[in-house]
Amino acid sequence: QVQLVESGGGSVQAGGSLRLSCAASGHTYSRVCRAWFRQAPGKEREGVAFIKHTGYITYADSVKGRFTISQDNAKNTLYLQMNSLKPEDTAMYYCAAVLYVGNYDCSLYRYNYWGQGTQVTVSS
């Protein structure tokens, strides 16, 4: 089993920055995709950034150039650096993982391990 715990959310003005962290515990797997998703009230969940065990990264168009996903394998921690935040970035942010992945892009997998979420609120 994998447990994921997010931290780092909060409230910030437009143009500001936040850094989210996601600490993973449980077994360590070699073939894994990790990701950040978000869901705003009344909207569908959206994949924001994805990173594979190989280091290959995919971003949603809405955050390209503003958000950076990274991972510290030694600490088993996933990060999301969010810069130039906009009010439309306001959402609950979740980290997620899927194990035993193959050669597909991480954005194409169904994620089955989820954190509890951390709220990000951006005011104009």
Q: In a nutshell, what does this entry contain?
A:
Helix content is 0%, strand content 53%. It is mainly beta. It starts with a strand and ends with a strand.
Structural category = mainly beta
Poorly predicted ranges (pLDDT <50, ≥5 residues)? Answer: none
Helix content: under 10%
- Largest beta-sheet details: 7 strands, mixed
Shape designation: globular
Binned strand content? over 45%
Terminal residue distance: 40 Å
H-E order: EEEEEEEEEEE
Count of separate DSSP helical elements:
0
Please report the total strand number as a whole number. Answer: 11
CA radius of gyration is 14 Å
- Average pLDDT, all residues: 95
Task: Give a description of the structure.
The protein is mainly beta and 124 residues long. It contains no helices and 11 strands. The strands form 2 sheets. Strands 2, 4, 5, 6, 9, 10 and 11 form a 7-stranded mixed sheet that branches. Strands 1-3-8-7 form a 4-stranded antiparallel sheet, with no helix packed on it. Strand 5 (46-52) and strand 6 (57-59) form a beta hairpin. It is globular, with a radius of gyration of 14 Å.
